[in-house]
Design brief:
The protein has 17 helices and 12 strands. It is mainly alpha-helical. The protein has a two-stranded antiparallel ribbon. It is globular.
Length: 455
């Protein structure tokens, strides 16, 4: 029954760590073990494995949120090519899984496991003074990756955070690096405390800017905390961390100077990328396999360079990755929009418009930009949310934005799709904004793990 979980993952940890046999970590029993790093170099090599840790190649972070979002419209030809799981997610079915392999669950928990393996190994090491920077970087990376992975999982498998509301159904939180460990669900509050705790622990350990965008940095940890607090609707804290990230990394590309050499105009290492990561490339997240929502396309101004760079024949090619991976990492444009939104929500209209102007002057054709103005904080907020919608599509952020914005009636959205002549609807705050935990996870961990609310 669990043969799909007995996969062989070869981890080239320089030449020091042997290959290790792994299960899907939370939902299958295995008689194998993971090779334990025995040096700082081993630990760093494991964190530098960008296939597993950053989601490159046929790996990745959850894409079901993007599949459930309104970034695209359903083309029947593309729809017929999607997996059964993606087809079900497109129409917000109750139980979406068409096969036992659920990458949106398995792959982030692999990242969590590898992070825990490194943290456990580092606890046993005693670095010399000359090794301390390397030790800190490996440890900070493990904290960051674990927090990053847990946040991605929480957007798919738990309800959105709601201040003052007690919810027992958070994520299972790994306590050991034993792959046979059985799990119970933490509370939602505990889940977010874990995420924030991991990212906060990473900050003093990491360099301000990393040697590579695949490595975490302080700028990335600040940016991730801004994303987390924004999802929690804790806007003053999101403002603080977005600002902290921008103090370290603030460069924006002038889209007028981007010269595409093919369909994919942006590189993985472009100046805006703070931290590189990708979603699992399936369904509408696969490059060129969906058409952007027609109303969204129509909302771009004539002089908006994004419309030319992002779209070809209505299909989205604007991911920040020249290989076509669905970018879900951290970038400065997101931080400008987050800080602008938080300024608007805290009543600083001038600062909000300044941040919006800083971004939009880089997005409009040269000589056509007109500064934004707002009559009040709400007007500023609406303009910022509109540009956030047009700037950050296909990054896995729209699902999280819908979940938080649906908590306020003034920004709630009812989603509709037409597939093969049938109209489907997703109402604000529907239980279908939370996906079921895969059935094999429930079965293996009985009676410890409770399924999400019935749909």
């Amino acid at each position: 029954m669990y043969t799909r979980h007995l996969l062989y993952i070869i981890l080239f940890l320089t030449t020091l760590i042997t290959a290790c046999k792994k299960s899907a970590f939370l939902d299958a029993r295995s008689d194998s073990s993971i090779s334990i790093p025995t040096s700082i170099a081993d630990c760093q090599a494991l964190m530098d494995n960008d296939v597993d840790m950053n989601g490159y190649s046929l790996s990745g972070y959850p894409s079901l949120g993007e599949t459930g979002s309104d970034d695209y419209y359903v083309n029947n030809s593309f729809y017929s090519q999607y997996t059964a799981t993606d087809q079900n997610a497109v129409i917000w079915a109750a139980d979406i899984y068409g096969n036992p392999e659920v990458n949106d669950w398995d792959l982030p928990y692999r990242t969590v496991l590898y992070s825990k393996v490194v943290l456990d190994a580092l606890e046993k090491l005693h670095p010399a003074a000359m090794e301390l920077d390397s030790f800190n970087n490996a440890q900070g990376s493990a904290f960051f990756f674990r927090g990053f992975a847990y946040f991605q999982l929480a957007q798919i498998f738990t309800k959105p955070y709601d201040e003052g509301v007690t919810d027992p159904l958070g994520l299972p939180l790994r306590q050991t690096s034993n792959i046979d460990e059985k799990f119970t669900r933490s509370s939602l509050d505990s889940t977010y405390r874990q995420i924030i705790g991991d990212l906060s622990a990473a900050i003093p350990l990491l360099p301000g800017i990393s040697l590579s965008i695949t490595r975490p940095s302080r700028a990335a940890a600040y940016a991730m905390l801004a994303r987390v607090y924004l999802s929690m609707r804790k806007y003053p804290k999101a403002l603080l961390y977005a600002d902290s990230s921008l103090q370290l990394r603030r460069e924006l590309m002038d889209y007028n100077n981007v010269v595409p050499t093919g369909d994919l105009p942006f590189t993985r290492t472009n100046p805006e990328v703070i931290f590189g990561a990708a979603m699992y490339p399936t369904g509408p997240c696969a490059v060129g396999r969906s058409f952007a929502d027609s109303l969204l396309l129509a909302s771009y101004q004539v002089n908006d360079v994004r419309k030319t760079l992002f779209f070809k024949g209505g299909r989205f090619f604007g991911m920040y990755d020249e290989n076509g991976y669905a970018f879900c990492g951290l970038a400065t444009d997101e931080m400008y929009l987050t800080r602008a939104e938080c300024y608007a929500r805290t009543g600083n209209i001038d600062a909000a418009m300044n941040d919006l102007d800083s971004l939009m002057i880089k997005r409009m054709s040269t000589g056509t930009f007109t500064p934004y103005t707002a009559v009040d904080a709400n007007d500023a907020l609406q303009q910022i949310l509109q540009e956030r919608r047009k700037e950050l599509l296909y990054r896995g952020l729209r699902w999280t934005d819908l979940r938080r914005l649906n908590k306020d009636a003034s920004t709630a959205t009812t989603l509709t799709r037409t597939v093969a002549g049938t109209i489907y609807t997703l109402s604000p705050n529907s239980t279908r904004y939370v996906y079921y935990i895969p059935s094999e996870v429930i079965s293996f961990n009985k009676p410890n793990i409770q399924q999400n609310d019935p749909r």
